[in-house]
Each structure stands twice: as C-alpha cells, then as structure tokens.
Amino acid sequence: MMAKAIVGLQWGDEGKGKITDFFAARADVVVRYQGGNNAGHTVVIGGKKYKFHLLPSGGLQGKKLVIGNGVVVNPKVLIDEIEMLSRYSKVDLMVSDRANVIMPYHIAMDGIEEELKSKKIGTTKRGIGPCYSDKIARYGIRMGELVDEDLFLERLKSVMEAKKKIFDAYGLQFDINSIYEEYSEYGEKLRGYVGDTIYYLNSIIDEKNVLFEGAQGFLLDIDYGTYPYVTSSNPVAGGITTGAGISPKKIDEIIGVLKAYITRVGAGPMPTEEKGMAGEHMATKGNEFGTTTGRKRRCGWLDLVAAKYAAMVNGVNMLAITKLDVLDGLEKVKVCIGYEYNGKSIDTFPFHPSILEKIEPVYEEFPGWDGVKGKKRYEDLPLKARKYLDFISEWLNIPIGIVSTGAAREDTIIIQSD
Ligand code: GDP
Ligand code: IMO
Ligand code: MG
Questions:
Q1: Ligand 1 touching residue 197 (CB < 6 A)
Q2: Low-confidence ranges of the chain (pLDDT < 50)
C-alpha cells in the first residue's frame, strides 16, 4: 500500500489536476490538504473539460474523496461542486470538521485588503487570505460548527461581535441573522459529509492507496514562495502533515509536477518571464488563461534553479513533466540553469522580490522540435525533445515518471510509475 503526493513545483497551474486524475485510477482515497477554491484543477476526458476547485481531482475516477483540516471551505462552492460531480460519478466525500469556513466577510476583506496595498498581489478574491488570517488569529469558524445549529449560532455571534470594530473600520456592515440563515442552510446540506478525517485517514493509511493532491505550487507557498506574492497556505508536501493529520513517516512517494515552461498568474517576480514572441507562443498554444479567474497567465522559460529549490524542500522523488507539446514549433527552447545578480553568479533561489526582480537568468539553449503533441510512447517523441527531458532529469537528479503531451487523459507517456 502506498501514500503518494502530487505537488506543484512552480507558481501553480502545472497540470496537477491531470496528473492527479492519472494516479487516482490506482488510488482508493484522494485528499486535498490545503488551499481552497482559489485552486482550479482541470481534467479532460473524451473532449470534455471538468474543473475542480475544492473537491479532489480524483472525483471522476469515482474514488473516496477527503477534504482535510488544512483546507478552507466555501460551503456554497462545495455544494455546487458536489452537485456537478454527482452528474458524472458517485460522490463519496468526507470533509474535515476542523476545516475553516470561508465567510462572506472574508471575501469582502480580500477585495479591500488588495485595495489598501500599494503593491497588489492579484489574489483570486476568493477570501482565502482573510480566512487563513482568521484561523491563525483564532477567529475561525470550522465545518464541524457550521453543521451544528447551536454551535454555529454561538460561534458566529462571538466571532462577528469581536470583529465588529474591524468591520466598522473597513466600512463594512454584515447582518448576523441573514448570514446565519444562509449558512445554516449550507450546513444542513453538508452535515452528512462532515466528520473526523484525521482518525479516518490514519485508520486507512496503512491499508489503502492514498493520494494527496496539492493545490497552488511551491513558489506560492506562504513560507517558501516569493513572499509577499504568495498564497496563504503551505502547498509544500510538508503541508500534508498539518493539513491532513498524517505523519511525515507515512508518505512514500512525492511526485513533483513541472510544466515544461513556467507560468504565473497575478503579481510578483518571475525571473524567466518572456514578454516577446516565445511567451506569446506559450500563452496561445498552452491556452494559458486561469481556470479560476480567467486571467491571462504570464509565461516564461523553465527555471531549473527554482525547480531545484522546490524539489529539495518537497523531497520530490519523481517528476511529471506537463505541457511539453506546447513547446512544439519553437525555433529554440531555453532553460534557466543559474542567475546573475550584481555581476555575481548565484545558484540558490533568493528570498526577496527586490533581488528576484533584478537577477538575470543564465540560459542553456536547445534546438526546437515539432511533433510532441499527442504522443503516447517515449520512443515516439522527437529526439530533440527527449534531449530536453534528459537534461531536466539529470540537472535535477530526479527521474521523470510521466510526460504529458496534451490536455486529454490519454495524452500521457508513462516512463515509470508504481
Ligand atoms: P492545475 O491547477 O495544476 O491543475 O492546472 P490547471 O488545470 O489550472 O492548468 C493546466 C491547463 O493545461 C489545463 O487547461 C489542462 O487541461 C491543460 N493541460 C494539462 N496537461 C497538459 C498538456 O500536457 N498539454 C496541454 N496542451 N495542456 C495540458
Ligand atoms: P492551482 O491549484 C495559480 C495565486 C493568485 C495570486 C496569489 C494569491 O490551480 O495551481 P490567493 O487568492 O490564493 O490569496 O492569491 O496566488 N494563486 C494561484 N495561481 N494557480 C493557483 O492554484 C493559484 N491559487 C492562487 O493568482 O497571485
Ligand atoms: Mg489551476
């Protein structure tokens, strides 16, 4: 029996949804451990696109789904997504009683806090940051409370009364009664799904195949990412321990998802950003528009300095390289293997955006190729594309298990996977 994790190694949107769907075929349980509906994970089957924001992307494989204690839950979004999935599959879901609930004031605050900042982050405006802030400040309302009418009313009153002065300062007004009415209805609909996922997961972790699905990506991690241009949770594999209640000893394999180039939505430094033709090629061919907000993603060359940092902290033992087909048709393909800052070479990922904004990437260049799209066997890939893959694997010293050559489920090359 195996516990595997799928984690994003860049700024999100690496194709975690597709890779999770692939590994979910052999899993019994698929678990989200952090983030909320800021995530947008896409699975494409039979030409149809399915988007997951809160439910694990293993949903279409009909597997048991778990939303762990580290996730922040917008109950309305969850109800809608359960309804969506139930059109295609059975929904066997358990949501942690300890997961924090995204409230209407979190969504309002997300917008206002962005307005107040002179340097905007470009959040998804889903209330993620304010909800995690309240969790840490101990103003959170948890799913176990939402689904219990008495507990909910008491907690809602005490939290909203305590926060009233903050709301006033922000010029916000909320009516406790109408929030109570709306949210207790959500609570009623979700009651049957909420339980103690920590005991549940620990009871099965040695007997079943469990797959943990990260949201966002390592460079958006609140601790390791390009702070303050990050999200408010820990997408890193270590987040599984705090976000699902599983000991680090229990995770057998960590699969790092790496796009063959790099993208970023929202603000913040991006050393290998390509504003010219190559970037346009990636955006257009890769259809780089956000799954959640529809915003255009910034595109650039694969950054192996950042990837090495991500692989080190996550403890990645296998890579899934996605969207290799998007590089089809480029004259040359570049990959960043170092940085220069103030005339000096650096080979580590700097901590501060002011440094990241000024560094010059050092590139290795590869001749371009064509014909990756839709390939299903490694041997059928163009030799030049294989050389690119070999370079990535050798440079990071991590084997490549999966190469994705298209959005569809079947456009997947399996090199190694157990
Ligand atoms: P996630 O957030 O990491 O799950 O990634 P998203 O779903 O937000 O973004 C990845 C996008 O690329 C989605 O539209 C996928 O359908 C698509 N995609 C995934 N893998 C591939 C691939 O190998 N090639 C192409 N062309 N598209 C892919
Ligand atoms: P998936 O799981 C890409 C970005 C936002 C913003 C920053 C903070 O689909 O890879 P937040 O709303 O989380 O407070 O926004 O993080 N961001 C993502 N970018 N993919 C995601 O998720 C993201 N989730 C958040 O654009 O820059
Ligand atoms: Mg996404």
A1: no
A2: none
Which residue spans within 68-200 are E strands per DSSP?
Answer: 72-73, 93-96, 100-101, 194-195
Here the tokens at position 309 are 């940092």
pLDDT at 294 (0 to 100): 85
Closest residue by Cα to atom 3, ligand 2, is 12
The catalytic position among 41, 53, 106, 281 is 41
Lining residues, ligand 2, CB within 6 Å: 8, 11-13, 38-41, 121-124, 126, 128-129, 215-217, 220, 231-232, 265-266, 291
3-class DSSP state for residue 108?
Answer: helix
pTM, entire model: 0.98
pLDDT value at position 293? 79
229: its two tokens: 């241009």
CA–CA distance, 85 with 72 (Å, rounded to integer)? 20
Distance 127 CA to ligand 2 centre (A): 12
Residue 418 has what pLDDT? 64
Given the structure tokens 């050393």, which residue do they identify? 271
Which ligand 1 atom is nearest residue 411's CA? 23
Measuring CA to CA, which residue among 198, 85, 209 is closest to residue 144?
A: 198
- Count of C-beta atoms within a 10 Å radius of residue 389: 20
pLDDT at 292: 76
- Estimate to the nearest angstrom the gap between the alpha carbon of 399 and the chain centroid: 22
16-46 pLDDT, tens digit per residue, is 999 999 999 999 999 999 999 999 999 999 9
d(CA 223, CA 236): 9
